[in-house]
Each structure stands twice: as structure tokens, then as C-alpha cells.
Model the fold of this input.
Amino acid sequence: MRYMMPIGTLCMLSVGLTIPFGAVAARDQGACGQIAAACESAGFVRGAAREGAGLKVDCINPIMQGTPQPPRASKPLPQVDPQLVADCRASNPRFGQPRPSREGGSQPSPQ
Done:
């Protein structure tokens, strides 16, 4: 019993160890993960497109496509190193790109 640590100390210790590992995880997730992390750090959130703060539509897509943000965007884009964007494109060419339309599926084109 005398070796038991107070619960508050144990919680503080576990949180203190988790924060540095989170920063390392962001670096280790590759260029695309670093871009997504930069967007999240700038306040963009999954599912917040209606508010102009959507992670993909208002931040990732404009960065990866080299286009302006949609007019409804409510937050400025984070500064991202162009080399990071190039590295992401090289490792995952579809990241941040529009989804192909369903109409262009496997049906033969009319001639």
C-alpha cells in the first residue's frame, strides 16, 4: 500500500508522456499526414464544411490543388512548405484531389 501513487499524479504523468509522442507521430505520418496535421492545428475540422472550416474541402484540397479556398472558408490556410506538398503528391497522388465522377465508370463511351 505504501507504493501506491496518488491518482492525480498518475494522470499527470500519463498526459505528460503522451504529448511528446503525439508530436513525434505527426512527423512520422509522412508528408500528407503533416499537411492534415497543419490544417487541424489551424482550426480546420472534419465535418465542419458548412461553417467554412472543413478539414478536407476548406484546407487540404486547396493546398494540394494549388487553388484558392472556397469563398465560404472561415479560416486562413496554414503555411505549408511547397516541398512537403510535392512529397505528398509523390507518395499519394490522390490525396486532396477531387473524387472521380461516378458517371465516368466502366460503361463504354457513346460513339
